[in-house]
Design goal:
The longest helix has 18 residues, at 116-133. The protein has one domain: 3-Layer(aba) Sandwich (NADH Oxidase). The protein is built from nine helices and four strands. It has a four-stranded antiparallel sheet, with helices on both faces. It is α+β, with helices and mostly antiparallel strands. It binds flavin mononucleotide.
Length: 201
């Protein structure tokens, strides 16, 4: 893999400004839109990242997370980029891999699983942290045509397309169109912790 930017320098500006110290990998994770188009993620690293998703906890160990993994250059990659919406089309094809995150829901008549999408999200969170550990970055997306992806990959009605993750090697923000560049360098913010705590006795 070729690193075209020095990640230690970029991470210094993108690192979360936390109120309490976090483990490095959490503090450093962020969602870039500029990826190195020439980077190829080796198969062992990609498997490791997916393995992190596999070992995430899930309700009743039901493991409802399913993934469509598409390497740049593959037919699947094109099907996914075709289904992206709005400004996602302008940047996400620079990632090395696009992963469609699918929740396997129970079939009609089967016991409902209220946690399937929660479990999928947790699986993706584990994947994103492992990716960060491998020197890669991830960017999750909700802006896509789920019906188009379902049709392109012959998914069943129980296979719910929830998000798409871009996975790749950090690229140069200067290559982005002006409005995307602005977002890429904008300060990272969060609500204060006190706003998140509905009760804190
Ligand atoms: C469910 C979900 C959907 C998202 N959809 C999009 C999207 O369609 N396009 C995009 O550029 N970013 C998308 N994002 C990225 C968020 O905007 C980003 O995670 C958030 O601004 C926090 O930034 P950070 O990840 O760098 O901390 C999405 C993130 C999540 C978790």
């Amino acid at each position: 893999m070729t690193l075209i930017v020095d990640p230690t320098q970029v991470n210094a500006t993108r690192r979360a400004d936390t109120q309490s110290p976090l483990i490095e990998i959490l503090a450093e994770r962020w969602s870039p839109r500029a990826y190195d188009k020439s980077a190829v993620i080796d198969e062992a690293t990609l498997t490791t990242v997916l393995e992190a998703a596999r070992w995430a906890p899930s309700g009743n160990n039901g493991q409802p997370a399913r993934f469509i993994v598409a390497r740049r250059g593959s037919a699947s990659f094109v099907k996914i980029t075709d289904a992206l919406m709005g400004f996602n089309k302008a940047w996400a094809d620079s990632a090395s891999v696009l992963i469609v995150n699918v929740a396997q829901l129970p079939a009609e008549g089967e016991r409902q699983n209220p946690w399937a999408r929660y479990d999928l999200g947790q699986s993706v969170a584990h994947l994103s942290i492992q990716a960060q550990h491998e020197g890669l970055h991830t960017h999750q997306m909700g802006g896509f045509d789920g019906a188009a992806i379902a049709a392109a990959f012959n998914l069943t009605p129980e296979q719910d397309v929830v998000t798409v993750t871009a996975l790749g090697v950090l690229g140069d923000a200067a290559t982005l169109a002006p409005e995307l560049h602005e977002r890429e360098i904008a300060p990272r913010t969060r609500k204060p912790l006190t706003e998140l705590l509905l009760a804190d006795d």
